[in-house]
Amino acid sequence: MTAKDRQALGKALWAVADELRGSMNADDFRDYMLSFLFLRYLSGNYEKHARDLLKGEYPGPDAPLATGQTPLQYWYEKNPQDVATFETEMNNRVHYVIKPEYLWSHIAEMARTQHGELLNTLQQAFKHIEEDSFRNTFRGLFSEVNLASDKLGKDHRTKNEMLCTIISKINEGIADFSTDADSLGDAYEYLIAQFAAGSGKKAGEFYTPQAISTILARIVVLDSQDPTRGPRQYMRRVLDFACGSGSLLLNVLRQMKGSKGIGTLYGQELNITTYNLARMNMLLHGVKDDAFKIFHGNTLTNEWTDIFDPTDLKKIEFDAIVANPPFSLKWTPREALAQDPRFGNYGLAPKKAADMAFLLHGFHYLRDNGTMAIILPHGVLFRGGVEERIRRKLIDDGHIDAVIGLSPKLFFSTGIPVCILVLKKCVRPDDVLFIDASREFAKDKKQNRLRMGENGEPDDIGHIIDTYSQRREEARYSRRVPIAEIRQNDYNLNIPRYIDTYEEEAPIDLPTVMHRIHELEARRADLDRKIDAYFAELGLTDLVK
């Protein structure tokens, strides 16, 4: 399936969402739509492997299926003695098991026939997937999908009818498209982006636009792909400590060319709805349940207890860290955090803006030869107080590798320009690379967009990555600034201090300009004479005077 076809699938599903949600809030309908798409992927993937495993035993089109019965249901009923062995083998192949009555093919058939038990079957299916399907339980995965909500209808019958309509429309919308992991995964991300765009600034925080996500991902995998830049060709652990819907982690996986290049993806997310989106997103993109760990908890208070034993936290480190944390989040740090190993050598970020707290959290868990890329507001580059002290130590210790400025209006959640800070624990050359990419973008309606070199457009992303990887200097775009110069500027990292974007205007040819002025004056005098003559013919000479 081509990228164009995958985008067409996403648009087809968005059209369904736009048609069906009616008066329902976009955020509420998002949870239904994406959950059903997730169930469709799990089911399709499961049935594909079931057909491969059973081969000739899998019921064909001539099997005497009962009304509403699916082929796998028929096989289960005919071979009860083989079910346990079958499910064990399926667990080994796809890492999960779904009972036939909970597969999408059966759910869709119930929706098509307006079956009165669809709502109850869906509730049972969601509970089954959360608690029984996977080797690792995914409790609460569908907790935000309220099948009893009055937004679906006033009573059980109307709710059931609404669910039948939604599922039938989704099934029709994807009927003409491939539904493999890549296709549905791309469609899932397309829908996330569309819901983020239409949900307002607050709701859009969970999504990092793909172009920006790609920049961070390509930066952190550079060392793993270029043997001249570092020793490793494999990343054991990758972390996004404010992972939202998980798109950044998936982009790192994509840049590493799949799971063979990465051991485990780790994420942390405080918002429960977004936490569930991230877990679904991982599975829907074909990431096995033992190849990722997404944790629901507060990053700033270091709530990692259901991923790692607290006594082992000092041993945890990551080869690559990417993050797009909430900008200038207000927080109230406890006094004990001043002694926290993450902040103890630097100080606590101010209550009005936790930006530096997020940065230090990630940096603390970065491996010695790892790379961290984090998106932050420009204020972290120049604000005073404790933030300046944090900058001083990071700069003096050689940990800030690059500062990259981007244009405004790239995010759904804010219109402000942002920057990317690249950090390393290994001591870098005695300079910081500054890149001013703030003038390279395309305007798309209300948002700006970084171009990717497609359809004859410039490659804004490639320009940034190539400049960063080569640490290349370019007039009015990039410069390697010595640490000594940064110290002279009181550790201020504001990009315009170091990159002059002023372009001289073309010199003015005064003789040509004066000649043009005289020509215009002569034309005006000639027009005045003609107007006077017209007024005289009309007998309006008094008006002329």
Automatic annotation (TrEMBL):
A GO molecular function for this record? N-methyltransferase activity
Instruction: Name the Gene3D superfamilies on file.
Output: 1.20.1260.30, Vaccinia Virus protein VP39 (3.40.50.150)
Instruction: Name the domain of life this protein comes from.
Output: Bacteria
PANTHER family xref list: SITE-SPECIFIC DNA-METHYLTRANSFERASE (ADENINE-SPECIFIC), SLR6095 PROTEIN
Instruction: Kindly provide the name given to this protein in its UniProt entry.
Output: site-specific DNA-methyltransferase (adenine-specific)
Q: InterPro entries, alphabetically?
A: D12N6_MeTrfase_N (IPR022749), DNA_Adenine_Mtase (IPR051537), DNA_methylase_A-5 (IPR003356), DNA_methylase_N6_adenine_CS (IPR002052), Restrct_endonuc_T1M (IPR004546), SAM-dependent_MTases_sf (IPR029063), T1MK-like_N_sf (IPR038333)
Q: Which Pfam families match?
A: HsdM_N, N6_Mtase
